[in-house]
Amino acid sequence: MRCVLLPLLCLSAAALAQTDRAGTQADSTAMLTMDAVYGRPFQQLGQGPVALGGYVEANSRYAGTDGISEGLSFQLPRLTLFVTAAVASRIKFLTEVELEEGGREINIEFASIDLGLHHLLNLRGGILMNPIGAFNQDHDGPKWEFTDRPIVATTIIPATWSNVGFGFYGKYAQGPWAWGYEAYITNGFDGSIIDNAQGRTWLPAAKENPERFEESANGMPLFTMKGTLDHHTYGELGLSWMGGVYNRFREDGLPLDKKRRVDVVALDYNATLGAHGPRLTAEHVWALVDVPETYTQQYGTRQRGGFVDVVQPLWQRTVFGWAKARVNVAARLEYADYNAGTFRETGGRIADELHGITAGVGFRPVAGTVIRANYGYVWQRDLLGNPPSRTATFTFGVASYF
């Protein structure tokens, strides 16, 4: 997969040789998923270079599994703060700090210095959000009509997944077309993805290791690359790959194991269909993990999953003085297969998987604030494919930028 970098660099070099002014101006206005970290509302502090922003989410939840419920709960899943600064011409800084579960956890999700060399060649270093899929970068709660994040984006891709490293990014636009790329090397996964309390291959377990912001678990980098193609009418299509060695294969120079890889490939797409049509967002993920032969078959070597969101505006009008208040209805289909394989002894299918459907309605008094109600239904099968457990969830909440 590293060969993906070569055509990206070749395209960059070719475009760098061009000096088409219209292309540069178009580039400055073309917004892609890769621009999500800066495409947020910020409040400028006077005439200074620093701007602040953030968002908050608060929900109520009532859920029951196979007819058993623990009743109604209230949550504040996250409060996120942004700080950005124009350090100098073509040098900017941005950080995103997230307080989760009422402040019990504090995470720096993004903190980078960007040096703009050319619109096709920019250097970024610091704590980066690995551009795998689209949701990992464009995850702000107020943008979504759903209180819960997609299952595949939190249980296969460990959103929000960020690491320390550096790399390059750029984009170019001409007429209705725009394309962009990102290529980074960072710290990565560790052995916890197959040695965890879940009892299955579980990439999100690596998020629990705060030392990944200080050093690599095995001295090997994680590579992440993404290419994006966008058309004003037909939408944006992204293809990304993330991969590297995850295990500690040597200790003090002594070999412990062979190098074992984890590789994740994601395909994402988003578009607005027509002037008043629905907004479509889709993502599909494949994960390959080299699991030792000594592990039982409950640890999958292949995982896959995806989701499709459809959001349809119903009406927009003045409500209580909000001139462009609108109501949207939404639906989400999703699934995750944590062990996409067969049993060695019988050849039967391994069924560690779940499927879900969610319906929702959202009221937006302004674009950056949503009051939303969701009803979700998930059915999940165990490793042996026994009759699924069924969970129904009703949530009501609010999310807003500030």
Classified by CATH, the class is Mainly Beta
Q: Give the low-confidence spans.
A: 1-28
Q: Globular, elongated, flat, extended or rod-shaped: what is the shape?
A: globular
Bin the strand percentage. Answer: over 45%
Discrete helix count: 3
Total domains = 1
What's the CATH H-level homologous superfamily?
Answer: Porin
Which architecture per CATH?
Beta Barrel
Q: Share of helix among residues?
A: under 10%
Summary tags:
single chain; 402 residues; mainly beta; Porin; 16-stranded antiparallel beta barrel; two-stranded antiparallel ribbon; 6% helix; disordered N terminus
Describe the structure.
With 402 residues, the chain is mostly beta strands. It has a single domain, classed as Beta Barrel (Porin). Helices cover 6% and strands 54% of the residues. The protein has a 16-stranded antiparallel beta barrel with strand order 2-3-4-5-6-7-8-9-10-13-14-15-16-17-18-19. β3 and β4 form a beta hairpin. The chain is globular, with a radius of gyration of 22 Å.
